[in-house]
Amino acid sequence: MKMNALYDVYVEQLKDMYSAEKQLVDALPKLAEAASTPELQQAFEEHLSVTRGQLNKVQALLDDINENPGNKVCKGMQGLVEEGNEVIKNGGSPVTRDVALILAAQKVEHYEIAGYGGLRAYARVLGFDEAAETLNGILDQEYEADQKLDDIAEGGVLDAGLNEESA
Ligand SMILES: [Fe+2]
């Protein structure tokens, strides 16, 4: 049963975020492996378990309204993951790579923040209060991940890059 146009946008966006999280579950172990700063490696590993949880939450939100993820592919996340892969392939010094990995990961977080922010707004207007709460919780986790990356960058990675001679 289709309710209205906003409902359709909500479902499409949920499917999109499902695909986004799924792609991220595959990408994060590679980012963790490529990171050389221990805190960064740890942040990626922690975010992997958070991301798995988010994937389940998005699946549950779709289940609640009798929808399923289908085979929609999030093209935005595809591009962002591709950029992350390029950083890994480009090599360079460990510090250079960490700086670039942090930015690639922050682009991912900001993309997700936009997606979940929209979803939360739609859920509220649609009267899906519990879903809005769940989405709010996911949003908090994405903000936290973004902040953590800021802290790691400012906590020494950027300075290390500043003090390293260019190749
Ligand atoms: Fe996420």
Question: Short description, anyone?
Answer:
The chain has helices at residues 5-34, 38-64, 75-90, 94-126, 129-162. With 167 residues, it is mainly α. The radius of gyration is 17 Å and the shape is elongated.
Describe the protein's architecture and organization:
The mean pLDDT is 94. This protein is mainly alpha-helical. The chain is built from five helices and no strands. Helix 4 packs antiparallel against helix 5. The longest helix is centred in the C-terminal third of the chain and has 34 residues. The chain has one domain: Up-down Bundle (Ferritin). Fe (ii) ion binds next to helix 2.
**Number of E-type strands:** 0
Structural class: mainly alpha
* CATH class term: Mainly Alpha
**What is the straight-line distance between the termini?**
59 Å
| Name given to the CATH architecture | Up-down Bundle
Under CATH, the homologous superfamily reads: Ferritin, core subunit, four-helix bundle
How confident is the prediction overall: mean pLDDT? Answer: 94
| Helix fraction by DSSP (H/I, runs of at least 4) | over 70%
Keywords:
single chain; 167 residues; mainly alpha; Ferritin; 5 helices; 84% helix; binds fe (ii) ion
What topology does this entry show?
Elements: H1 5-34, H2 38-64, H3 75-90, H4 94-126, H5 129-162
The structure holds fe (ii) ion (FE2).
The site of fe (ii) ion has 5 residues, from helix 2.
